[in-house]
Amino acid sequence: MPATITPFSRPLYLMAKPVGALCNLACKYCYYLEKSNLYQENPKHIMSDALLEKFIKEYIESQTMPQVLFTWHGGETLMRPLSFYQRVMELQRKYAHGRTIDNCIQTNGTLLTDDWCRFFHDNHWLVGISIDGPQEFHDEYRKNKQGKPSFVKVMQGINLLKKHRVEWNAMAVVNDFNADYPLDFYHFFKQLDCRYIQFTPIVERLHQHSDGRHLASVDERNSSEPLADFSVTPQQWGNFLCTIFDEWVRNDVGEFYIQLFDATLANWVGEQPGICTLAKTCGHAGVIEFNGDVYSCDHFVFPQYKLGNIYSNTLIEMMYSDRQLQFGQDKQDKLPRQCKECTYRFACNGECPKNRFCTTPDGEPGLNYLCQGYYQFFDHVAPYMDFMKREFLAQRPPANVMEAIRKGTI
Ligand SMILES: C[S@@+](CC[C@H](N)C(=O)[O-])C[C@H]1O[C@@H](n2cnc3c(N)ncnc32)[C@H](O)[C@@H]1O
Ligand code: SF4
Ligand code: SF4
Ligand code: SF4
């Protein structure tokens, strides 16, 4: 199994939420926790066995390829007992009909035990652990409802994963608090010997909804929704990326895999980037909630982006519906002229539509809030990317860039 899976290049892909938005933590910046307000009428936010079976059967049968990827997401996935995931395996075997099935699971890591790790190892699951860097950064926002920090428990979880040789990678968010310390952040992951690192910028705006949710969707941009204070600024994001890139490109190419750098190189050479935010279009990755509701994307779980429910529509109908195709195509069609004419459009593609709530200097809507940071990053890495592209096209390792820098030829 590959150490990192890039689901967005696959034809039909859904992230499943077996406990909806329920969680044992209450990270201040979390976009998903408040989604439970969408389901106030449901007493329990738990995927039933009947729905699980229906989903697994239909999901496998909808695939056009011999490999099938399941992603378990939340909320906190480990709030289901191990027996739930053992049942998942049983159902996957029942409906596989010769297909290869992979599983990844995203977790905050605090509930990991020897039993969980044995299960993940024995069944080759890839485990994504959320950790925001060194303790002081992580604990600033990743606390439980009583305000108790989670770092120590997450590290215990990571040690268990290592002990049981489970394949894992780190998902870290970059927010107002940790963004100014890129090297502390990067060295932390290197010291952990974590070779696959994903960074996501936190960008949220506040908008009070009548059901209690307080985060805005991209459509809610007519009044001036304030930015949530934990959001990273465009300048912070640009500096953060450039600083880590400078260390990585000199020492770590081919050794440490940083998803955003890899995706940037992929766009530079004209391959599919393994990250949706830098891809030309969206719409390849939906979400299925605990009750069978399907949404366009994990960051668009809003009533207006609900595609239907698995009990009334097939997954194929929903994921290939005109609405979903349009959702995907809008990423490219709705780019403002500034992006269409941007030197780095081929690398950036206007990034994630959820962050496109700004206007260009000439008043056109749809500019990405992080534009300045991304432009700074792409402009900074361009000579190195050009070099790595040449190496790649000549079938030599892009890691030769490190030697070229040492010799001063770049
Ligand atoms: C919503 S959590 C669900 C899985 C699990 N509870 C966890 O924390 O890994 C999935 C990922 O989204 C990240 N995340 C949370 N809030 C975010 C936000 N506002 N913007 C971007 N990513 C966010 C988390 O740090 C985590 O890595
Ligand atoms: S652990 Fe995951 S789901 Fe829970 S609050 Fe934190 S980011 Fe959200
Ligand atoms: S909306 Fe954003 S998160 Fe969703 S698929 Fe598009 S780029 Fe990815
Ligand atoms: S860098 Fe800015 S202008 Fe260029 S494509 Fe990205 S968001 Fe658009």
Automatic annotation (TrEMBL):
UniProt keyword annotation of Ligase present: no
UniProt keywords, alphabetically: 4Fe-4S, Iron, Iron-sulfur, Metal-binding, S-adenosyl-L-methionine
InterPro entries: 4Fe4S-binding_SPASM_dom, Aldolase_TIM, Anaerob_Ser_sulfatase-maturase, rSAM, rSAM_sf, SPASM_anSME, Sulphatase_maturase_rSAM
Domain Radical SAM core: 6-241
Gene3D superfamilies to which the protein is assigned, alphabetical: Aldolase class I
Biological classification of the source: Bacteria, Pseudomonadati, Bacteroidota, Bacteroidia, Bacteroidales
Segments traversing the membrane: none
Family: Belongs to the radical SAM superfamily. Anaerobic sulfatase-maturating enzyme family.
Cofactor(s) for this UniProt protein: [4Fe-4S] cluster
Species whose genome carries this gene: Phocaeicola barnesiae
The keyword Metal-binding is annotated on this UniProt entry: yes
Superkingdom as given in the UniProt entry: Bacteria
Protein name as annotated: Anaerobic sulfatase-maturation protein
GO molecular function, one term: oxidoreductase activity
